[in-house]
Amino acid sequence: MLPFFISEFPPRQAGELATEEQIRAACDARELIYDGGFEMSDVFEHAAGWNSTTDSVAIYFYDYAAPESSPAQSGERNGRVISSQSGARIRVSQALTLCPGTSYDFSAYSRQERTSSECSAEFVIGGQSLFLAQPGTSWEFGSERYTVTGSDAEAASVDLDIIFVCIGSGDDDGSRVIDIDDVSMTPVESPVDDEK
Ligand SMILES: [Ca+2]
User: Fold this and answer.
1) φ/ψ of residue 83, rounded to 5
2) In the 8-state DSSP scheme, what is residue 169?
3) Domains, the chain
4) Tens digits of residue pLDDT in 160-195
5) 168 CA to centre of ligand 1 in angstroms
6) In the chain, which stretches have pLDDT less than 50?
7) How many angstroms separate the alpha carbon of residue 50 from the centre of ligand 1?
8) The whole model's pTM is what?
9) Cα 76 to ligand 1 centre (Å)
């Protein structure tokens, strides 16, 4: 039997509360991130299910078709941020629907093109910072646990924000590059009761 993935459904609309149906689906799901592998790109290289916001014109996010010489962590594509200005920030977000009272293992892979760019990715869920990745030039794994403490639709409706910034120098073209792939959020199999 195939596992049930939340990605069979479009994500919750940003700014709206999850419906009862969406929460039921989240409670049955084995993977809560929609297209965490960034394989679902449109022709404009927009990553399905992900939105990006920034105040700067010097930084952007897109769904990158990785070449064989520098492959994605999985599949053929990964999320990529390119910054032409030190200190420019971009927020890449997905509106999550989670199961109330459930603990999740959240994880993601990241890498940057050159460490002198000093790029980082901060992973934030529901306003709570989970971890800051400052990767090397090979794919690096990061993970942290997140527990949905409330029991209502508001607690189930939280946003994942990944905040990218590069404070170092660019390459010869003046660009700083950081990649992410395989963003994943799965329910903890054996929740520890006394942590609730
Ligand atoms: Ca991928």
Assistant:
1) -120, 130
2) -
3) 20-187 (2.60.120.260)
4) 999 999 999 999 999 999 999 999 999 997 655 555
5) 26
6) 1-4, 196
7) 14
8) 0.91
9) 6
